[in-house]
Amino acid sequence: MLTEEENEVLCRVGPGTPMGKVLRRYWTPAFQAADLPEPDCPPIRVTVLGENFVAFRDSTGQLGFLDELCCHRGASLVLGRVEEGGIRCLYHGWKYAVDGTILETPNLATSTFRERVRHGAYPVREAGGLGWVYLGPPGTEPPFPAFSWTDAAADELVVSEMIMDCNWMQVQEGSIDSSHVAILHLDTLATMGAGPRNVGSFEFAGEPWDLDMPVPARGQGGGRGGGDGRPGGWPSDDNAPRIEVENTPFGFHYAAIRDVTGEPGKRFVRVTAFAMPYTAFIGGVASGAVIVVPRDDYTCSSIGVFKVPKGAGGIAASRRAGGVAPEVWGPEPENRRVRLPRQDRAAMAAGKSFAGFRGGNRIQDAAVQMSEGTLYDRAKEHLVPADLAIIRMRRLFADSIRLVEAGDAPLGLGEGCDFARIGAASQIIDAGESWQDLVPANQGIREPVRRA
Amino acid sequence: MLWLSIVVDNACTKIWDAWGSGVQVTSLRVSPAVYDAVAAARPGEVARGYPLMLLGLPLIADPGVATYEPVVV
Fold it and tell me: Are A382 and B2 an interchain contact pair (Cβ–Cβ within 8 Å)?
């Protein structure tokens, strides 16, 4: 739980707020690069960390990321013309380069002003299908988080963005919360053979219900099977895993450790990596990450980035809805805001669905996370020890706020870290083995674990 | 400002450490400032006469406990 004051401090992200100052010290994935497909294409408005910007691609293909409003009279540059190496305001024709240089001021003949003043412009990089910006103080840019998928070609990446009407912390906490996965997402996991088939006394009745969702044949989707004839590949009946968290230079690793049914001396381990402040690599989900970015205090983007084999469609596949009804969500820029879907109570009553939401895990996540309200009051919550990952994430943010207010850098900037090695894991190991060995980027700050 | 994030993280880590050592825990001793902050945040539970609990454990105010060093018992 948090006090009301602390909840406000941790959740609000606008300029000048404690958390806003912290988040501005990291590279922030702010928009989809595919939304600016070619030189001189129409610009886009980007809302991130409670501020509005204009992003555009100039005549040479270079990205620009500027304050949205023209510094002359405040008209939106999103309405502007992108032409001949810059973006021109419609109102009085002032023109800006990608670095904020004022190129032309048609209603001011002398050059003194434009030589001395620059429009607000921010470092921007294109990587992993996303446009990343740095909104912190000049000269404080941390190492760029070059994750394993950030240098993938466009035809090897699927990027999907859902805009959700709730504070970003609700979604971020969900992305690292493994204890909800086998419950809220029971339909998905049970159908894929990747998880248990019951929640308490509720027994999943069977065949794929969410028919629009791509579902592999029974037993082909999950981890290693237990070998006892159970229908899924989930190797454990242990519903109360042991939780271990270890801080790293980029954030932390979080391991859920379960006994393996029928195999004493074996452990089923799922490791999630959290890279401050936006990115989670989730155990059991290969070659990808979930990124949660605040647009403002009441809206966020949940972005899935997944590396796929060449020829699987890549960015083109990103433009498909993947089984989600278009009235709920779509990949098109104007349809990325999630609307809560209708809950199918008949399917729930018949045991065909636990949660009753079609469209897969992310729609189920969106439904419960948005149901908490636009900014959840954590004074009312009752955390349990199984929530350790959420607890640790808040701790890192709280410590970072205190560091930044003291004039230091926040935690998890990844100095000296090989971001490309960060990843998740899901595997059966011997009881004497260390789960830290499953994640190559493990650079924990705890004392080394004794090895068998 | 009181950071319950730090109190809760330290308490949760100690609970898992205790469980890892095979020790069961029954309550959480916290400083009076922490106890008061939890009570103030949950007026409904106090009014209904429920015990204040954190991380599934009953809270006990203990002037001998430092603010950010809760003790699991």
Answer: no
